[in-house]
Amino acid sequence: MSNAIALPWEQEAIIHHSQRILKSFQHWTGNSLLDVSGSPKETAQALFEAPFVLASHGTEADPIFNYGNRQALTQWELTWEEFTQTPSRKTAEEIAQAERDRLLSEAATKGFCYFAGVRITSTGKRFYIQDGILWNLVDEQHQYCGQAAVYSQCKFLVSPD
């Protein structure tokens, strides 16, 4: 594994994307996602190492994850390479797709929304997110460029075997 992938926060594109995530969160919610001072690279590292799960996807017809911090990679049991090739819809079970689609639409319309719900890891483990926030990502010209989600509280569910 190359160092650039082992430490994605060192890549220029991820440093820039990290700034976009933070600025978009501030824009929509009026709050700071992370209290950090320092260079953009230091901020990108702090976001990647933050104690909450953070992921974002792009604007594709079937959106693909383009960012996941260390907590997200651990939660979904994926490497950076695997995560950034995964359609975000694959994190919700088929039965939860309609609710997930509704949330994505609500955030697209309002800028952000709160959510709770069941998601699944890459190995099929189910967990319940309790305190999620989903928001639109906007670029420097305030053009829509994807969505991001963050949460810090979840509970793994026992499978009914």
Comma- or semicolon-separated keywords:
161 residues, alpha+beta, Beta-Lactamase, six-stranded antiparallel β-sheet, 6 helices, globular
* Multimeric state: single chain
Question: Do you know the CATH topology?
Answer: Beta-Lactamase
Protein structure class: alpha+beta
Number of domains: 1
The count of strands amounts to: 6
- H/E order of the elements? HHHEEHHHEEEE
The amount of beta strand, in percent, is: 25-35%
Mean pLDDT over all positions: 91
CATH superfamily: PAS domain
The tally of helices reads: 6
Mind describing the biggest β-sheet? 6 strands, antiparallel
Low-confidence stretches: none
The share of residues in helices is: 25-40%
